Amino acid sequence: MARSGGERVARAELAQTFVQLYFGDGVQLPLLRSLMELNRNHYLGIGLIVLLLGLQFRYVDSFQLTEETTAFLAKRMKKETVMTQSPLAVLFGQNNPVALKKTVRPPKWLGWSMISIGSVLVIQSLGMRKPG
Questions:
Q1: Where in the sequence is the domain holding 81, given as residue range(s)?
Q2: For the chain, what is the domain count?
Q3: 51 C-beta neighbours (distance < 10 Å), count
Q4: How many CB atoms within 10 Å of residue 125?
């Protein structure tokens, strides 16, 4: 479906207004006049990525973050990092606490929804016309 020139300009002006509200008046984006439209290949690529991420969320029960990532998230969310000492360190008198690693357990519906959205995007891309 080809878009009219007026609609494309209106979308570019709307995007420029959003950028000015978010970043300030001094920021100009000259490439907004030529907004890229998604074609068959884009839908197929995005659909495959979402589908594979959904499969990964279904097969993996939990993710354990590193100490650095846990500390980064705690700082960004303004929560204090939980520090703990292992029982052996207390027993032997070592005094260096270790940050806990956060475990993330995604809900089961997330994997199923990503699989279904990815499947719909892949099937839709197969029904579209080839670019060019």
A1: 37-127
A2: 2
A3: 19
A4: 19
